[in-house]
Inverse folding.
């Protein structure tokens, strides 16, 4: 049985990836951070919490990373742990550098000490392209990061390439464009929209307040991206791959489509300066043709269907909550 270790298994992608790998017959281990209250709702939601082995580890602490390796003895490591929210990275630039940037090097370094044969996946980000002007980005597009998050991810991206070339590690960068789902954290704009729109439609909220609604992103459906993440480690030679849909849509389009699906007026949408970031990326759209050619990966879910999946699930969750049912997921805390 192949043994996989997922850092950040409690996050959106970690949970979907664990679910996917279990179906493939993997033994799945995942790291979680010790916190005063646990964050396993996604693992319960996917009904996999009792099928995986959870190991406490923090990417700020090399010793805990090494212990996770000893306990899991993995053949593949999917490094997803990160301070992943761009907005928060402006408030916590040093922390973001430490977790998202240096954290990756801590993992890479411990791999060198533990077993150089482990395959390593780094979740790099389309945000690394930042303010670069070309309309569609691929693996050869220059990077121009525009946030502490993007700069930290770019640092980790280059370190991953360096460890591949200098130490002959099987190390892969996935350059992931935005991917969303009902398991997205509530601070991310797509989930903020689907959750608030659901509440408005049920009469428990009245407004959806956003920031820069003209920002455009390439939004895919997360469960399809974790398959691409897995495929990236199954080919003979390690490489870097863009995963995207090749379409971009604005936050305004997302919010308006969500209102349409929930059958509420677009007049509920407002903007506030307090939600603006110090600096924002206008448009990100990705060309996934290399991943299609080399890995046989392509996205399936279209934009309108993605919005529908998210809005309908948030409405369903709130309806259940209003009936007084206990829910493991986070809608109840919003
Ligand atoms: P999430 O924010 O949902 O998950 C991040 C995970 O990292 C959580 O499990 C979190 O744990 C964990 N984590 C945070 N800090 C630490 C730490 N110090 N030590 C150990 N674990 C930590 O992100 P996603 O699942 O959406 O994304 C997965 C990866 O892919 C991230 O690296 C992200 O930056 C990257 N990515 C995601 C994209 C997307 O659109 N989703 C696009 C491009 C890249 P906890 O639950 O305790 O907070």
């Amino acid at each position: 049985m192949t043994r996989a270790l997922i850092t950040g298994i409690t996050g959106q992608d970690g949970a979907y990836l664990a679910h996917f790998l279990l179906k493939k017959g993997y033994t799945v281990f995942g790291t979680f951070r010790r916190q005063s209250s646990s964050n396993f709702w996604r693992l319960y939601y996917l009904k996999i919490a009792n099928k995986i082995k959870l190991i406490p580890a923090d990417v700020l602490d090399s010793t805990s990373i090494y212990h996770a390796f000893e306990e899991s003895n993995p053949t593949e490591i999917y490094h997803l742990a990160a301070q992943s929210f761009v907005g928060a990275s402006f408030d916590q630039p040093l922390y973001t550098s430490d977790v998202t940037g240096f954290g990756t090097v801590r993992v890479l370094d411990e791999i060198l000490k533990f077993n150089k044969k482990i395959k390593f996946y780094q979740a790099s980000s389309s945000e690394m392209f930042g303010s670069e002007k070309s309309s569609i980005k691929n693996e050869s597009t220059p990077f121009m990061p525009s946030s502490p998050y993007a700069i930290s991810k770019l640092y980790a991206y280059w370190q991953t390439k360096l460890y591949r070339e200098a130490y002959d590690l099987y190390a892969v960068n996935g350059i992931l464009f935005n991917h969303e789902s009902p398991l997205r954290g509530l601070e991310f704009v797509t989930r903020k929209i689907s959750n608030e729109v659901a509440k408005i439609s049920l009469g428990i909220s009245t407004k959806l307040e956003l920031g820069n609604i003209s920002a455009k992103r390439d939004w895919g459906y997360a469960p399809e991206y974790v398959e691409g993440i897995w495929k990236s480690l199954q080919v003979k030679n390690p490489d870097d791959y863009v995963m995207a849909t090749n379409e971009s849509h604005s936050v305004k389009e997302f919010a308006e489509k969500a209102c349409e699906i929930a059958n509420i007026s677009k007049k509920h949408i407002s903007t506030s300066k307090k939600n603006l970031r110090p600096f924002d990326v206008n448009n990100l759209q990705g060309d996934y043709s290399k991943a299609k050619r080399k890995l046989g990966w392509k996205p399936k879910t279209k934009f309108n269907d993605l919005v529908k999946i998210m809005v309908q699930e948030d409405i369903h969750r709130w309806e259940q909550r209003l009936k007084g049912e206990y829910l493991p997921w986070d809608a109840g805390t919003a």
In short: DSSP finds eleven helices and 13 strands in the chain.
